[in-house]
Amino acid sequence: MKYSDSISQANKKMTKTVILLQQWHLPATPTNYAIAYAYISKTNKALNTAVDTQLNLGKRLDDFFVNDLHQRYILPAEEFRTGMVDDLGGVVDHVSKNSQTSLTSLHNFMQELDNSSEKISSNNKTLIQQGVDDLKHAIERLRAKQNQLVKHLVNSKQHLRKVQKELKTTQKKLFTDSLTGLFNRKAIDNNIETWFKNDPSKQIAAIVINLDDAEQLQKKFGSLINNVVLAKVAQKVSSYVNNSGLPARTAGDEFIILLPDVEINVAKEIADKILNGVEKLRFKSTKNDINLPQVNVSLAVENMHVKENIDSLLQRARKKIVMGNNIADDLVMC
Q1: How many beta carbons lie within 10 A of that of residue 156, not counting itself?
Q2: Which residues on neighbouring strands pair with residue 304, listed in sequence order?
Q3: Same domain, 190 and 313
Q4: Roughly what angle, to the nearest 10 degrees, separates helices 30-41 and 45-56?
Q5: 133 plus 195 within the same structural domain
Q6: Is 46 found in the same domain as 96?
Q7: Fewer beta carbons under 10 A from the terminal one: N or C of the chain?
Q8: Which helix or strand (DSSP H or E) is residue 250 part of?
Q9: pTM above 0.85?
Q10: Contact 187, 175 (CB under 8 A)
Q11: Residue 306 DSSP code
Q12: Residue 33, domain member (yes or no)
């Protein structure tokens, strides 16, 4: 995200940013600072709307939420790796130049071949021998150029493979939640857009899973243990869908599974298995040798409307989960 603030404007915003971070109870890390500065600058309407919505719901801006905002709005996909684009451009330029050199060498060889052919076709032995010698030299020069081109192409191919590998790794980071390994909001948005673009009438079932008492777990045992529990629950959740669905993390203690072309009744069966599977998980602190409280989750199953915004779907599901919170381990079927 780019700004065109003067030094005076930037200084004023810096002061406001620090105050805002204190109000949000967030440390002044580079990521948190970038979000607060962007919020004050009002340069991204979507970012400000997301923050305002979170605050209006009475929810705090936790690390997950802020990092998600940073990835979605501060580091857009088209700008995620300028250096990589430069590398790819360098490979293309290198191959292009070598190809042009090869064409030039081939053109020169054809000219020399024509000249040699005229000499060889004459009745003059001296000219014939000269033509043969010229042809040999031309072939040697062409072979040397071709060998040089092959070496350049091999190097370019190796470089391209390295860039492709790095691109794949970066893309994975771009669409994956670093803590749980599940997909993130950017992946959700991209997949939903693709699904409905290919088939506007596509049916998508969604299972929204909320980890109960995650905040209390963090307060009592710390963020490290809480993160371990979140990651293990995420693994259990994703194990029930394999490649048939898109498991993603949508909040600090919330996951969603999008199931394209899956009937709502089938989604409910999967949700029931997830509920039972998570209930069987047991955790123990190896540091203190303490058994942690049993992990419980609340779930809601929804059908996604055609081209519906993911936020509205989550809002419906969250309301129904809250309504079912008075029943222990309740599975809210929507």
Answers
A1: 17
A2: 204
A3: yes
A4: 100
A5: no
A6: no
A7: N
A8: strand 246-251
A9: no
A10: yes
A11: T
A12: yes
